[in-house]
Write a structure and sequence with these properties.
This protein is α/β, with parallel strands linked by helices. Helix content is about 55%, strand content about 15%. The chain folds into two domains: about 5-160, Rossmann fold, CATH 3.40.50.720; about 170-285. Strand 7, helix 7 and strand 8 (about 155-160) form a beta-alpha-beta unit. It is elongated. The chain starts with a strand and ends with a helix.
């Protein structure tokens, strides 16, 4: 089995290192500009050694994960001497294997594996990683190696080309990051009726969990609920009036999201064409 090394001991690198080590992969070393990060990484991975220089780690490992910030992947790759037949991968969702072109030109095999998962903190990320979907961009033999790793982590797999990567990552940002933003904006509205954002979060967590369960079990379009799905024009009109009074900066967002929601309601079969046109007229004002 290949000896693994990690350049970059942040949440992504540490999470991969810990979980792959648990599955029997020999993680022999880590390097990072932060001594605290490397110490934390090595402390979680049995047999892992801290390397003072990236090149020393590259010389010792058969397969190197470059888990730095995206903007530094190409720079790190270009500064190192790679061996013919060595494997080099990164875990970026938006960057393609072209970020590792310097290693590829020296005879190394390159690829990328991106976990479709959120990494807000190391402990939570370690808990979340198994069962995630892993997006793999690689040619053989790296494709098989990364596929085996994803399966060892009990994950689903999607194979992407370089042309797919940025749109794939943009979609993930909408689903995860902008979801967070929308919930934040919704809970901020609670201040307008004398409650805190924390009160809103507490109230919405069961609702959000129920929504995610509906998406998973019922799927689209059946999972959609609410006034647009019901064709409740009067309620939407009241929403718009309240937002105009208390949070006018959110009117555009509410209207834009509503316009995208109308076709889902129609597909569900609970929103008639007449009601859809009436709601659209309201939202386009």
């Amino acid at each position: 089995m290949k000896k693994l090394g990690f350049i970059g001991a942040g949440p992504v690198g540490t999470t991969f290192g810990v979980r792959l080590s648990e599955q029997g992969y020999p993680v022999i070393g880590v390097a990072d500009i932060s001594p605290e990060a490397t110490k934390r990484f090595a402390g979680r991975v049995p047999g892992c050694r801290v390397f003072g220089k990236n090149q020393e780690l590259v010389d010792a490992a058969d397969m190197v994960f470059v888990t730095t910030a995206d903007d530094f992947i190409a720079k790190v790759s270009s500064e190192l001497k790679w061996r013919n037949g060595q494997t080099v991968v990164h875990c970026s969702g938006a960057s393609t294997v072209q970020s590792l072109e310097a290693a590829n030109q020296q005879g190394a095999h390159v690829g990328s594996i991106h976990p479709c998962q959120t990494f807000a903190g190391i402990e939570q990320a370690i808990a979340n990683l198994p069962g995630s979907t892993f997006a793999i961009e690689a040619e053989e033999p790296v494709k098989t190696t990364l596929t085996e790793m994803a399966r060892a982590l009990k994950g689903d797999i999607v194979y992407l080309t370089s042309e797919d990567k940025v749109l794939y990552h943009a979609a993930a940002a909408i689903a995860c990051n902008y979801f967070t933003t929308i919930v934040k904006l919704a809970t901020d509205l609670w201040r307008n009726f004398g409650k805190s954002s924390a009160d809103g979060i507490k109230a919405y967590m069961p609702l959000l969990r129920g929504t995610l369960t509906n998406i998973e079990t019922a799927g689209f379009p059946k999972c959609l609920t609410g006034p647009i799905a019901r064709g409740d024009v009067a309620t939407i009109r009241r929403h718009l009036a309240a937002l105009e009074k208390f949070a006018p900066e959110m009117l555009t967002l509410y209207k834009e999201l509503g316009c995208f929601t109308i076709p889902i309601g129609q597909d569900k079969g609970t929103l008639s064409s007449e009601k859809a046109d009436e709601i659209l007229h309201l939202l386009k004002r």
